Amino acid sequence: MTIKYSLTKAEIVRAFLAGLGRSKSLAIIPIYVVGLGLLVLAMRGANSRSVTFRDFIVAILWAIGGVLFMHLWLFIRGKTDERTVTVSPEGISTTIGRLSGKVPWKKVKLVTDTSEHAVIEGPMLKGDGWTTTGNAFYIPNRAFPEAGQRAQFISLINQWRNAGPVSD
After folding, report:
1. C-alpha dihedral, 124 to 127 to 133 to 139, nearest 10°
2. SS3 letters for the chain?
3. Residue 130: pLDDT above 70?
4. Under a CB-based contact definition with an 8 Å cutoff, are residues 23 and 157 in contact?
């Protein structure tokens, strides 16, 4: 079964934020934020003077700015090209613009059916190996033009995932 859809920039950011709770990124983001804050604090105190309360405030503001920049960058760079997602007994194939990838069912971690979208989580095949960071397909309801198509899509996915691996 093949579906085609596009995501808006806002949907991309919402999907990212919704997926943070289940992602390794949730642990990595605080490390980046603290690292940026410590770097700014070290740079402000590098001229052999004592670090002041103002230096801590500036470091915290830079850290907050770093988090905001990450979301802004995601909003700017998010792919709004038409996406094609095909599910088959072998797994999921996807194309976004000139990029494409495949995920066998054994690599799919989670399938979630919410009131707004279907979410399929798993790593993507890039180049010569699987990425270690998760990738998710957020498929909005509007991707299914007919009423029963979404239920059929989810049913096929669950059927093939539970059937076991067909191929790598």
Report:
1. -30
2. CEEEECCCHHHHHHHHHHHHHHCCHHHHHHHHHHHHHHHHHHHHCCCCCCCCHHHHHHHHHHHHHHHHHHHHHHHHHCCCCCEEEEEECCEEEEEECCEEEEEEHHHCCEEEECCCEEEEEECCEECCEECCCCEEEEEEHHHCCCCCHHHHHHHHHHHHHHHCCCCC
3. no
4. no
Measured CA to CA, the distance from residue 88 to residue 163 in angstroms comes to: 12
Per-residue pLDDT of 40-64, as tens digits, reads: 888 777 766 777 788 888 888 888 8
Average pLDDT over residues 18-46: 72
Q: CA nearest 141: which of 37, 7, 18?
A: 7
Q: What is the pLDDT of residue 58?
A: 83
Inter-CA distances, 122 with 56, 66, 93, 125, 167, Å: 39, 27, 12, 10, 16
CA distance 155 to 137: 16
Ordered strands of the 117-122 beta sheet: 110-113, 117-122, 135-140
